[in-house]
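Box S1 | Example of a co-folding query
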Amino acid sequence: MSTAASEKPRRVTTHVVQEMKLRREKIAMLTAYDYSFAKILDRAGIDVILVGDSASNVMAGHETTVPITLNEMIYHASSVVRAIERALVIVDMPFGSYQGNSKEALNSAIRIMKETGAHGVKLEGGREIIESVSRIISAGIPVMGHLGLTPQAIHKFGTYVVRAKEEAEAKKLVDDAHLLEEAGCFALVLEKIPAALGGQVAGELKIPVIGIGAGRFVDGQVLVLHDMLGITQDFSPRFLRRYHNLYQEITKAITNYIDDVKNLEFPNEKEQY
Ligand code: KIV
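Box S1 (continued) | Returned holo structure for 3-methyl-2-oxobutanoic acid
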């Protein structure tokens, strides 16, 4: 970051990410679920931190994002917010906290905002949740949309394959994207769709479009932190670039520690009182 050490960094707001789209500066977003990683991401200069419901898989070991609860998301989000000086923090509304009932959706969003200090929420879906989206936005809460592969609906779709390859599904996605923009969403995530479609949506919308497996023609990118750091190993979709193999690095450190303890090499004289 170019900010001098004594200066407070300029906070990223929903307006800042919209300005970034206007000046064609790409938006970098990653997930975080805890204080320590969030602090590293924030100080490294990440624009947006998503407290994703992928915490259900990554932190809790569930097979899907369906089981994670509102209370659990609030715990993760408040840990992340405590670490932040600059980044915009958006929190996934978990499955069951907004579908079907817009009043309950608003109550869930209010709890997230009041109890975590985060800056906005993300919801999966288009037309079918538009009433909830509008009601949350009317209360002054920024909403990020999420279309394409929507993992909370995994039991409806049955698979995590690329979405919107067929014309009808692509058309519905484009219509939903416009609907979410008209409802007042400040940004949109597109997950696992053809690159050309990602580019089309980013070109048609005024709000920033952030992709995960949606190609290079969108306004920004998001990845799950534990996947891009190589902590998780059993998940290798084409869109995932691994920037490190932390699983191996951490395993090496742990086995060295075990060996040192067993061989009486830790602690040494200088490491005791
Ligand atoms: O939960 C999550 O991590 C997400 C990203 C994959 C966009 O929604």
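The radius of gyration is 20 Å. Residues 31, 50, 52-54, 92, 189, 191, 212, 222, 224 surround 3-methyl-2-oxobutanoic acid (CB under 6 Å).
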